[in-house]
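Q: Structure for this?
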Amino acid sequence: MYIAHHQVPAGDTAQPKVWLENVSKQYGSVTALQPSDLKVRSGEFLTILGPSGSGKSTVLNLIAGMTNPTAGRVWIDGRDCTNVPPSKRGLGMVFQNYALMPHMSVFENVAFPLRVRRVTEAEIKRRVGEALDLVRLPSVAGRKPAELSGGQQQRISIARCLVYNPSIILMDEPLGALDKKLREEMQLELKRLHVELKVTALYVTHDQEEALTMSDRIVLFNGGRIEQAGTPHELYFRPRTLFSARFLGDSNVLSGKLQGRAQDGLVETPVGLLRSSNGNEHVGDGESVHLMVRPENVMLLSPDNKHEYANAVEATVVDTISFGGVIKTFARLSDGSTMTVQELTRARRQAFDRGARVRLAWQAEDMLLLPAA
Amino acid sequence: MDKERDVEALGGSAPSPLVATAAWLGFVYLLLPSLIIIPMSFGDTREIVFPPATYTLDLYREYFTNPTWTGSTIQSIRIAVIATLAGLALGTSAAYGIVRGSFRGKVLLGALLLSPFFVPAVVKALGFYIYFAALGIQGTTLSVMLGHTLFVTPYVMIVMMAALRNVDAQIEAAGMIMGASRIYVFRKVTLPMLRNALIAAGLFAFLMSFDEMIIAFFLSGFGTATLPVKMYESIVHEVSPVLSAISALLTFLALVICLAVTALSGRSGRQPSH
C-alpha cells in the first residue's frame, strides 16, 4: 500500500506484493533514486508516473533485479529479494519494444517460460493456447514475431507473461511504440486483463493520461524521489505540489501571498483577492503560495454577468481553439498572464470574439493552495 | 530501416565516369594475378607458361592423385577445422564477456584479447616456435592447431562483437526475468540469434587457417606440413606447374566462402523493426 514519506497508510494490514524498503540507487555521483519507500498491494494496478530521468525506470529495474540498490531492501511476497537474481524472483515483464525472441515462432515465444519450468508438452500446448485466447490472438501461433503488427507483438509479449502466472507483472512503457488509436485500445485491453485475472500490475509510463485511465493508484516521481502517491482522483483533484498539479492534466497557476490565517485561504494576487476553500498543511500563515485551478472549472462569462462565484477576474480573449468535444479559450489577465478556460462544445454556448472583454470565474472549492517552493 | 535508406542515398547517385574507370582498373590490377593462374592451371605438366599451348586437366589430376598434395591438403583441413572450432568457442565467449559484461578493466581486456591481430605474423610465428619448442611439442600437428587457434580467435571476436551489439540485450533480459538462467538464455536465445554471424565467422576462420603459411611453416615439421607449406617448399625446390592448379582451387574456395559470407551478412542482424 502507501508509500511516501509523510503519508500514514490506512488499513495497511495485508502483506504487500512488493515493498521497496527505503531503497536508494546511486550511479557513481549521480543519484537515480533518493531513499524511497514504496509498497505495491496485492491485485492492484499501480502506475509509476514521471518525466524521463525521474527515477521511474530505476524503480522498475530494482524490482526486476536488473540492478541492485545502493541502500535499502527489496521485498517480494514477504521474501527479501535484495540479492536474488532476476530469474529467481518469479516476476513477469512487458517491454516497450516487446523483446520477443525473433528466431522463435509465436508459440515457442509464449512457451518459453513454461519450457524453462519443465512443464510437460501437453500442458504447454494447453496453456499457450489459453494465453493466446486471452489476448485474442488464437490463430497466429505458427508465425514469427516479425510477421505481426506492433500491437499484435505486444499482445504476444503479454500472453508470454500471463502464461506462467507470475506473482506481479511489470510493464515498462509497453504502449510507447504504438500509435494513438492502438494505444487507447490496448489500455482498455490491459485494464480488462487486469480485472479478469486479478493480477498485480506495476506499470511505468510518462503519459499522465494513460496513468489516469488505467491505474488504481499512481505514484508520481520527480527528480529521483516520490512527489506524490494516491488514487488518480486524488492526484488530479488534490495535487499537493505545483509539480503534481502541472504534470497531471492542464492547470492555471497564479501566484500570491496569503492574507491572514492560512486556513481562510485568502490570497492577495496581482489580479485581485482570490479565495480557496482548500487548506494545505504545507503552507503557513502569510506565506507566498501558488494557486491552481483546472481549465474545466473556470467559467467564461460576459463582464456584466451577475454571478455567485467566489473568484472572478477580468480578462481579454486572446484565442479560441476547438478540439472537437471541447473548446479552449485563452484569455489574458490584467497582469499579462494567460488563463485557459475549457468548455464542452455546445451549440448554445455563448461565443466570444478575439479581443472581447470577459469575466473568468470559479468556485473557492475548485482552487487549490500549493506551496511556493 | 533508416540505415537502409542512408545506404540507398549514398549509393543512389552514379559515380562520375572517371572515378568508375579508375575503380575498375584498380580492381582488375588486383585481380589479374589470380585470373592469370586460371588458364595456366589448364596447361600441361611440363612447364608454367602463359598462355598454355594445350588445355588439359592433367594438373588437376596430378594434384588429386599425388599423396604429397592430398596428404598435406587433409592435414590443412584437419588443422583448419580444429582451429575454427576452438577459435569460435574462445572468440564468441570473449565477445560475449566484453559486450555484455560490466566489470573493471573491460576495455583493457578487450584490447589485450584483440592484440594478436596487430602483431606481425612472423613475430607470432617466432613466439610460438620458441614457446612450443620449450614445451617439446614444436613440429607436431597439435602445435600448428594451437598456433592457428590463436591466429583466428581475434577475427572471430571482432565478427561476434559486432553481431552481439546487434542483439537487443532486452531480449536476453526478458528471458532471465521469465526464470531462465544466463546459460539457458545464452544457449536458447543468444546463440540462435547469432547463427548467421557464427557461420560467417567460422567460414572466415577456416579460410584464414587453411591459407595461413608463416605460422604453419615455423611450427610444422616433417610429415606435418600443411598445403601452403608444401606449396612453398615445392616452389623453392622445383617450380611445379601443379601449383597453378592448386592456386586456382584455393582462389575458387576463397570466392565461394566470400560469397557465402556476403549472402549471410545480408540476412543477419535483421530484427523486427520497432
